[in-house]
Amino acid sequence: MNFDDPRTRCDHTTAWQRLRAHYESAGRSFDLRAAFAQDAQRFERFSQDAPHVFADLSKNLIDAPTEALLLQLARECGVVAYRDAMFEGRPINNTEQRAVMHWLLRKPAPGHTGQAQAAIDTVAPEIASALHDVHATLEDMLALAERVRADDGITDIVNIGIGGSDLGPAMVVKALDDLRHPGKRLHFISNVDGMELGSLLRQLRPESTLFLIASKTFTTAETMSNAQAARAWFLDQGGSEDARARLPLARHFYALTTNLEAAAQFGITTTLGFWDWVGGRYSLWSAIGLPIAIAVGAPHFRALLAGAHAMDEHFRTAPLESNLPVRLALLDLWYRNFHGFSSRSMAPYSHGLRRLPAYLQQLEMESNGKGVDAHGQPLPYATSAVVWGEPGTNGQHAFFQMIHQGPDTVPVEFIALREPGRDLPDQHPRLVANALAQARALMMGRPEEADGHRRFSGNRPSTFLVLERLDPASLGALIALYEHRVFTSGALWGINSFDQWGVELGKGIAKDLEPRLATGDVQGLDPSSAGLLRRLAA
Ligand code: F6P
Q1: How far apart are the CA of 163 and the centre of ligand 1, in A?
Q2: How far is Cα 357 from Cα 351, in angstroms, rounded to an integer?
Q3: 392 with 504: CB under 8 angstroms?
Q4: Mind listing the pLDDT tens digit for each residue in 383-440?
Q5: Are 476 and 106 in contact (CB under 8 A)?
Q6: Listing from the earlier edge strand, what are the strands of the sheet with 209-214?
Q7: How many C-beta neighbours within 10 Å does residue 351 have?
Q8: From ligand 1's centre to the CA of 477, what distance in Å?
């Protein structure tokens, strides 16, 4: 599978040189307050409606000439051709020779009405066939989820997975908690530290527990250790490998994986599969989403997919200048490569979105934390920023001090909901007021204050996203927005955002060190590792 990459690296374009000059002459000294004073339309000009998401970009360090140059950069880099290659199912993950088609998991089934049908009719036969398989698996998964939901005997569902097989489903299940089946408790176990699984197992009974072993490869060490430990606990508590027994393992363990053989060897007979063209961190829409479907049911899972599909269509068809994922990615590049900002703080003013920062850490940093281009050539510029954050208002009482007055500029991304959730809706205006206040304080500052301790320089940038409410469709659109933003910044930087070779080295070394912890053997180790191993050896 050969892929002729249509991209030009960003630093090889004329737009890049022009942006450098523009940054020196105007970008570096840009002042938000002056920009608002000069342009009464700034809010309208720099805000953007996309499916289910409204974005106010006006409190960012950009003006019309900056954005025009950034858009020129996107055109010169070949972002459009690269985006189209993804949607054509070309193997853009060149180091693993795989297509990247998580968007297909959200595409309506053939025979669906209206516009969607027209779009499907034009896809290549291989994609039509993959889409057929996607919907067959989706129907199986939703039917299975409904069976679990209807089974009053099962009260606890334990998802054992890590990385993309944990973060996406865990984040979504928490976000949609208002819609969760009241008789089902969802648990997510990822860490190989036995404390996590052990403390949960003490609260569970085997007959009312269902384990979902979620692993694309079914080889990941952490997941396999936890799965084996759960299996041993289950058998120890009266479970049996015999399918006719009172408590058969096969009824209490399901697998979500592309490795059907390994799941069968584990003794699992109920397996939902998916495909190598679904990257781990893009997999919550596939069988990996089973815990979500169990928690909220089939109609809500379909709404999640529909919201994401609406964002896919926006990304695929909107002109670059009104394409929200593209505008956000260009802003990321402007901050990272010209202003030199090294991190972005996520501030979702929503308890439901409390795991969004962790989810985005994998999505953004595992995708774009790369030092070479897609051809393996070292890059002379920075790539992924560090993504971090906490839900508002907690972050305000922890690290916002540094964001307001510290020497580093940290762009903040606020997310607020117009409608409150189910609980204590009277507190919602206070939550929203805090989000608005922080964004305004960062921009306006209090530069005139004589006392240095109380002085705020202001001119600190932020983006403000608004969702109507935290429902499945809005959440699906929000996640797809981030996926496509990460895609676009990776496209601009010329990297392959879909591999993760950086996790391999440490995995290999851990395998070598584990037996040494028992024997104390430090031969061949560097002095620091040897000293620590002696300290930690049993
Ligand atoms: O962290 C590396 C990684 O391969 C991720 O990309 C992936 O989401 C995670 O491990 C889990 O992998 P698997 O689903 O195969 O267990």
Answers
A1: 5
A2: 12
A3: no
A4: 999 999 999 999 999 999 999 999 999 999 999 999 999 999 999 999 999 999 999 9
A5: yes
A6: 185-189, 156-160, 209-214, 253-257, 270-273
A7: 16
A8: 23
